[in-house]
Every structure is written in structure tokens, then in C-alpha cells.
Description:
- By secondary structure, this protein is of the alpha/beta class.
- Helix content is 39%, strand content 20%.
- The chain has a 6-stranded parallel β-sheet with strand order 7-6-10-11-12-13, sandwiched between helices. A 5-stranded parallel β-sheet has the order 2-1-3-4-5, sandwiched between helices. Strands 8-9 form a two-stranded antiparallel sheet.
- Strand 12, helix 12 and strand 13 form a beta-alpha-beta unit.
- Helix 1 packs parallel to helix 13 and helix 5 packs across helix 8.
- The radius of gyration is 22 Å and the shape is globular.
Amino acid sequence: MKVLANDGISQSGITALEEAGFEVITTKVAQEQVANYINTNNVSVLLVRSATKVRKDIIDACPGLKIIGRGGVGMDNIDLEYAREKNIHVINTPASSSDSVAELVFAHLFTGVRFLYDANRNMPLEGDINFEGLKKAYANGIELRGKTLGIIGFGRIGRSVARIALGLGMRVIASDKFVGNAEIRVDFYNGQFINVDIPTEPMEDILMHADFITLHVPAQESGYVIGAPEFEAMKDGVGIINAARGGIIDEVALIDALDSGKVAFAGLDVFEEEPKPAVQVLMHPKVSLTPHIGAATLEAQDRIGTELAEQIASLLKTENS
């Protein structure tokens, strides 16, 4: 049985699938050629990340497809319900990349509070001729310890963010429509741990009280989670991070808030117009930028590949028994 990992898969995932008796194909097939490739090569399992879209046209054109696997959390690039109506299993790996995304959130937070987004642009240009000027420009950094982090969306990734924040000595507040209360276990290297109970609050309270805000919600069918009214409700000088999905923040309103000083800095891993983000966002001097790499750590990709392999083997074993 053949598996097409069209957006790549870790070596550990390949090994696990091969040991389970699958032939793994890692050829990158262009979007418009995916259906033809699946049929020509008798592919039974299609694995994707965020790049390949698995819409109704591919599902209808590939009657031999048994499983669609998404390496990661969000499945907005797959017509999920339609695939299931056609008796195709759709799987993902919601827990595998949580810590990787959470660590990227803090990479952006540390970058923001110490002006690294700007220093890394200006030091190569002016470091040798304006060292003292740049030193003065970046001299008013702040610490994260003691500050309030607001987490909008308190699922697996939001809770991983909370663990790191608590370890740093931050106050954590959270909002989630579907979670009323969460016990966060913070583990330490020596086996010790603490449990911290965090009740969720209305989003309005998060906006009013947070020094920094990070979003961990799925793609929205309509409207923004954060737009001009939400920015207006925030504290002056807030920092905001989006490593979830493009389109949940109104980027026009964000630029306005950055220009006015309402928002001190933003960290963006995802964008409204991927894969061609707006130039105004890319060029803004108060934005820390990464190209949708939240789950792109070696450890997360190993976990994703192995977990997908285990789910695929289990599903097809059950189906054939």
C-alpha cells in the first residue's frame, strides 16, 4: 500500500511506515497534479501539512483514497466533512507540535520586548557607524517576568504557552468559548512539578488586562477575532502574537494600531495573504516575522511522522481485520 507524503515527512515517520509495510513516496506533486498522481500510482494514503489543499475535486477524483492525514493541528486545507461522507478517514496530530508552536510564541515575545525585530535589521546597516545611537534606541527593554499574558484559545497549544509563561513568572489569563477551567501542570527537569488552576474569562477581560496577547484559535469562517474595536479595548503599548492562523487578525487594523503606538510590537508567523503576505506587514519596523514555521522543529516533525504512522497502521489494520 502506497503513502504519498506530499508536503514531506520526517525520516522517523518514513521508517515507521515502512516497518508497517507501506511504500512511502515523498515526491512533491504540484497541486493541480495531485489527483492524477494518486490515481496513476495507486496511492491509498495522502499526507499533507498546510501547503497541499485537499478539496472536493481531489476527493471526488480519487476513489481509491482511504486516508487523508494532516501533519499538525488545523485542518482548514481539507474538506473534512465531505471526505468523511465519502468514507475516507481524516486524521491529524493535534498534540505533536504544541510545544514547538509555544516556544515560537516566546521567541517572538522576547524579540518584541528587547527590540530584536529592529536591532537585527539595523545592526548590519549601522552597527559600525552608529553603535552608541542604536544602543540608546534599544535601551528601554522590559522583562516578561511579572507581566500578564492573555491567551485567546486555551486548547493544547494555548496550554503549552501557559506552561512556559508560568515558568517565567508571568501571570496567565485565558479566554476560550469551549473551556471553562484548566489545570496547567508545569514540569521541571528534575521530575518535580506544580499544578496551576486557570479559570477562563470573557475575551473582553483579556483585552483590558493583558500586557501581551497571543492567539490560538482555528481559522474563522467569517470575520476577525481581533479587529479595530478589539485593538481599541487593549491596554496602550500591548504586544500581540499570532502563530495560529492567518485571517484571525485584521492586518489593516494592526498596522494602524502599530503606527499609533496602541500596539508596541507584533509577532506574526501566519498572514492573511499567505503565501504572499502584504508588503505593509513585511516592511513594518515593529513586526517580528517568521514564515509559518510554528511546528517546524526537528522534534515536532519526528513526533508528527511517528504519530501519523501509528494512526495509519492502526486504522488499516482495523479495516482489514
